[in-house]
Amino acid sequence: MSAAALSARRRDLALALVVTLGFGAAVTMARVLDVARPTLRAVIQDEAPYLAPETARRLALGFGGLAADWYWLNALQYVGRKIEEQARSTRLGFEQAVQLDRIKAVDSRVLVRLFDMIATLDPRFTGVYEFAAVVLPAVDVEAAVMLLEKGIRANPEEWYLHQQLAYIFWQRGDNLAAADAFRRGSRMTTARWMVYMAEKLEAKGDDPDVARAMYARMYEQAQDEQVRQWAQRRLMELRSLQERSAIRRALAAHVAARGQCPRAWTELAAALAAGGVPTSPQGLPLDPTGTPYLLVLTPLGCDVTLHPLSTVPRG
Fold it and tell me: Collapsing DSSP states into helix, strand and coil, what is residue 304?
């Protein structure tokens, strides 16, 4: 290697080191300033980033992806802490507390700022839009819509982001806006199911079939594993609700025919099979996790409920 080439390489390495150290110092200084700000000191871990997203982007000097990864880890850790807090405060088991779309303990100001920071530093990182579409609407639906629209503008070829936007609108009951989001996405892909979803939403957005299709598509298209698992749990919940409805119909028919509640599930074996409810070899109806449903007998009648050990979401 020539002396000139060697000198140029050393210069480039030195410049990269200076930029990296400079951004690291900026982040560190931001943390120091954050701690010093009394209006944000309720809990240090719950502080929103002090740097404005655009300021952070300029300071990153080409290292936006690296900085976005750092903020992404902070966002995941923050959500994880809030899930644990919610589990303790509500006396729910951890499995029941891990409902990404039902985390009420988060500070919307912190979460919105973190997601916006990540999307500004690395607009092409689609995982943040997908995750935010599930987590953010529970605390700030307008911010969730704005973030997804921002992601769609930055990633015009990622048609599935329109599905995430449609989910947000559907969750807040705006079926026409959800249908419009699907139609916008359908113009970017040959996937006919997006047109189908738009038509179903326009016809009857509160149909259980729409809910199943929504979560099934989100499960299939998910890039983030946490979102995939969340969608799978929502599908499990819907299936269990359908099964319990079938079991209640069987209970009502039994009471109408015999004037009393069954003493055990085995008395309903034929009716459960006819209703499409999975059962164990002993005749016990099984929920989607394979855990038996409980038969509830009271002086007022009979009902079905989930077993305490079941991990099916409880709404």
Answer: strand
The answer to pTM > 0.85 is no
DSSP 14-50: HHHHHHHHHHHHHHHHHHHHHHH-GGG-S-GGGPPPS
The helix or strand, by DSSP H or E, that contains position 298, with its residue range, turns out to be: strand 294-298
Q: Which DSSP state fits 268?
A: G
Find tokens 């150290």 and name the residue.
21
Question: Residues 73-114: pLDDT tens digits?
Answer: 999 998 888 888 777 776 655 555 567 787 777 888 989 999
β-sheet bridge partners, residue 301: 298
List C-alpha distances in Å: 264 to 11, 94, 126, 200, 284.
Answer: 80, 31, 51, 40, 9
Q: Say if residues 101 and 132 touch (Cβ distance below 8 Å).
A: no
CA distances from 212 to 141, 215, 217, 222, 235 (A): 22, 5, 9, 15, 6
* Structural domains of the chain, with CATH: 45-232 (1.25.40), 233-305 (no CATH)
Q: Which of 83, 230, 244, 114 is nearest to 171 (CA)?
A: 230
Q: Which two tokens stand for residue 65?
A: 């992806």
CB crowding 107-117: b at 16 or more within 10 Å, else e: beebbbbbbbb
Read out DSSP for 197-264?
HHHHHHHHTT-HHHHHHHHHHHHHH-SSHHHHHHHHHHHHHHHHHHHHHHHHHHHHHHHHHHSS--SS
User: Which H, E and C letters describe 91-111, residue by residue?
Assistant: CCCHHHHCCHHHCCCCCHHHH
Q: Which two tokens stand for residue 272?
A: 């459960």
* Whole-Å CA distances, 101 to 130, 132, 231, 236: 12, 9, 10, 15
